[in-house]
Amino acid sequence: MKTYIYSKTKAVKDCFEAIKIKKDEIIDIRNPEDILSDLKSLHATEMIYCDISSYDEKNQNKVLKALCEIKKYGIIDPKAQLEDSAQLFYNNASDYIGKNMIKNGIKAQRLRQAYDYKFLDDKENILIPEDFILSGANWKEIKSGKEYTFCLMFIELDDLRELKKQTGASIITEMVDDFQNFINQVIAPHNGKVWMWMDYGGLVLLPFDGENCSIIMSCIKLIMNRKMLNAEFFGYDIEMRYRIALHIGNTVYKKRGDTGEIVSDSINSIFHLGQQYAEPGNLYMTDYVTQFIPAGLRSLFVEDGEFEGRNIHRMRLPLGH
Amino acid sequence: MKITSQLKSLTMKALSQSMDVQTMIAMVRELHYNYDIHKQTGYADSIPIPKMTAAEQIVNDINKMNLFPQFINQIILLHKNGHMGKKFPVKFLREIFNEIKDQGLLYDNQYNMFVENPEVRITRNWGTLQNNNEYYITFLRLDIVGNSKLVREYDNKIIQRTYNDLKEIVEKAASKRNARIWNWEGDGGTVAFFFTDKNLFAVLSAMEIVHELFLYNKMRCLLKKPLGVRIAVHAGPFLYSDNEEDLKKNDTIKKLIEMEAKHTKPNTFTISSEIVEGLDPVLYNLFGAIKIDQQTSYYNYELRWESV
Questions:
Q1: A contact test, residue of B168, B209, B305, B307 with most A CBs within 10 A
Q2: What is the SS3 assignment for B17?
Q3: pLDDT per residue over A46-70, tens digit each?
Q4: pLDDT in tens, B93-152
Q5: Is B181 buried (19+), middle (13-18) or exposed (0-12) by CB count in 10 A?
Q6: With a cut of 70, which residues of chain B have pLDDT below it?
Q7: Quick check: B153 contacting A, CB < 8 Å?
Q8: CB under 8 Å to A181, separation ≥6 — which residues?
Q9: CATH topology for A123-315?
């Protein structure tokens, strides 16, 4: 948690400097004059406290107006200048620190509560469709034969059908085996399991708890670091390229190898997306998955049209990679 | 490296049962050119020294000179290549290898030397480089852009946290490729690569740092603007020294610093022609050439994204 305090009042500065924070928390006291320029680059995970007594009346209104646009801010009012402090909360504020609190001291817990107040609000904004049957964050509660909502990851090597004709089957088999082992390493920290495997790729099943979809970060790195992976791990004369598709949806779970009779719109969709829509070397995801892209990385994705009734997003590619 | 009595005993047996005294002396003189076995044992020059006596004396002397791993290298080279056209299959080599492995060292076939097993121990010189010996080393240098301004602008806690995060990124990229951070000051440092594909590993480390820093700046950076670093990779001769100050006097390092400071844009890295030669073609195409003068070109990598 990172908190910026904009104040030139000594009592306010002393009060915040005295707060005992944890190692991974930071309180940074900054010049009130910088607040408007700083707001332009405020990170989604940062919290601002603004001492309104540090501004004249004209600038107070300007600053309060600008603060309404951001998600996490609190107002410090050491001279009790605000007549209606409750109004602040209708304008997106997360906290109000009045004269008495400055006098009596503030505890770190208060800052965390204010921070979480909006953070939890963000999480509540994640839509969970009514037909979702969340599987939980791991495999503990998942039983064979029952339906759950999973994150589905399709990944397949590109170009190998053509290359097989040129290089022979044995080298291709070796490449695919290496690739499958590598994918197992990538998905293991996310509790993923290769569920179905075809000639050149497969479908990975990842438990989904409705709150996190950490595999997105690994997929971003798979695209970003593809050349490095080729040089360091695969080491073939043929450059390996793969396409990835992510979707969150329902399917009945059965053990690997026992999946022949499963009928699932989500499974059909992810295969169609990966095999019919996806261009070589790219990462795609359906609309619902995009909610879980880390906030700072959303600009890496672009809308890429509609496929089988779902909006599709594609990761921009690093140039040359 | 701890020289156990078992290792000494095995080495004595290997010497005395695999070669004559003249060959033993020839091996010692590769490491200590005026070694005199007669003087060391007290035998007159005209009297032949028994093989077991010579072997025992040599092993003890080598141990005192702190040259044991290097001497074992000589024995391995004799086993592989022979001496003066004659083959010398050395006995007890497998047992010697196992004993040394138990001490946390592994044999590097490319460089014919023992190096420490990074899973057991990590030291600055990989447990093998000797002071005042010259080695060909690949260096990665990294420098934080605008350090003085950042230090003035931000609270010390933020700076410490940010710089520690950067160091973690560098350490992770370097340690997984068995590199060593030889120098780390507040605003950057120097990383050395010596074994295996050292040029490739240095380039991959630099690329990983650029990529991870991109993600860090997007997701976790506490500064108002992205943290910027300049990175350069270059290889050349280096007279090994345990002293960090000696780094600055070395010509390879001087060129590295010049590449980084004068020819590298923030959050990119530059490599020299020594590094680009033989670089994996998969990576080669990612670099753009920078012509410095008629004789010199550097090559730069920048993470850029497809525009929409």
A1: B305
A2: helix
A3: 789 999 999 998 888 888 888 887 7
A4: 999 988 888 888 888 777 777 888 888 888 898 888 888 889 999 999 999 999 999 999
A5: middle
A6: 1
A7: no
A8: none
A9: Alpha-Beta Plaits (3.30.70)
Contact B207 A228 (CB under 8 A): yes
Average pLDDT over residues A231-245: 89
With beta carbons under 8 A apart, name residues in chain A contacting B280: 230-231
Q: How many CB atoms lie within 10 A of CB A170?
A: 8
Torsion of CA A269, A275, A277, A279, to 10 degrees: 140
Q: Is B151 within 8 Å of chain A by CB? A: no
> Which chain A positions have a beta carbon within 8 Å of B303's beta carbon?
224, 318
Question: Which pTM does this prediction carry?
Answer: 0.76
Best of A27, A39, A223, A227 to disrupt the B interface (most B CBs within 10 Å) is A227
Q: How far does A46 lie from chain B, in Å, by closest CA? A: 9
Tokens of A306: 């509609």
Domain locations along chain A: 2-116, 123-315
Torsion of Cα atoms, A32 then A37 then A43 then A45, to 10°: 20
Q: Which residues pair with B239 in a beta bridge?
A: B134
ipTM reported for the complex, 2 dp: 0.78
CA distance, residue A206 to nearest chain B CA (Å)? 23
Check if the beta carbon of residue A74 is closer than 8 Å to that of residue A97: yes
Q: DSSP secondary-structure letter at B277? A: T
Architecture of domain A2-116: 3-Layer(aba) Sandwich (3.40)
The two three-digit tokens of residue A26, written as one number: 């930071």
